[in-house]
């Protein structure tokens, strides 16, 4: 009776329940803020080579340079919509390194870098930002398919898309998963819950990421939800869920690698919450982050950003230095220069083109509009 009484007391103790939610999700970390290994044994589980470390570092540098150049282009009026990514390089690029070409990526609008490293040309990303139809062609430079959907503007909708594809991969017995990213704000959307619940119910091949970057536009994480951890939302649908230091490239890679292996083996989806920070505005569309956060907070997060950690770790290992980094930065910027020229030289869309792209078979009224605008050279 005493044991039963103790069990019932815990069930009825709501403060205890909240405490348990908090303690149930320790944060996975391998590399600390100073770039030092805090868990060598777990690091060894990743089976990551020096070449892999260099590749991940290069991916993060590519993402940072894309962020810098895209922001400059936006200020010049030469770029369309852009959502900055600075600070989230480990969360995005180190995690994506764990996936394969056959895996399907379902990105949000802040996940352009993950599509680029799957083979999507940067010039198409630029055209996508400008609203050009060619920006929705998910193919490589030589026309081969890229296993990625176009960046989703509707918050959280990519979760439903990923769940459907994940079930298709399972039914076809493919050695592949669907993986997708959203932010902390996206985890409050209905599509988020529908996506993880559907995928979990059918044990579909999916890995879901919540990039907890601190703010859903101007709404801070603490006002977004009362959940102790966003990862706890995965438990409600029966998903294995974890919290990862999103500024730790090594932890992000290992978490993604383990999650992919679990899911592709037929065990169902995994949810990963990444603790990171959006160091710049929500977008280049006029957002001023200093209206809803302090500069001192931003400065502190800049000290913890992932490139600093990875750079120090790799320098200490003797596989990276300032010369190598600058050479790669120069290489990336030369590539971006070429890609901008390609995008600028693509024929601009006409009004008639927009109407043609609306439906595969235009209605009679639409065809009349097409004919009219074409006759006027528009």
TrEMBL record:
Its cofactor is thiamine diphosphate. InterPro entries: Alpha-ketoacid_DH_E1_comp, DH_E1, THDP-binding. It comes from the Bacteria. This is 2-oxoisovalerate dehydrogenase subunit alpha. One of its GO terms (molecular function) is branched-chain 2-oxo acid dehydrogenase activity. Belongs to the BCKDHA family. Gene3D superfamilies: 3.40.50.970. One of its GO terms (biological process) is branched-chain amino acid catabolic process.
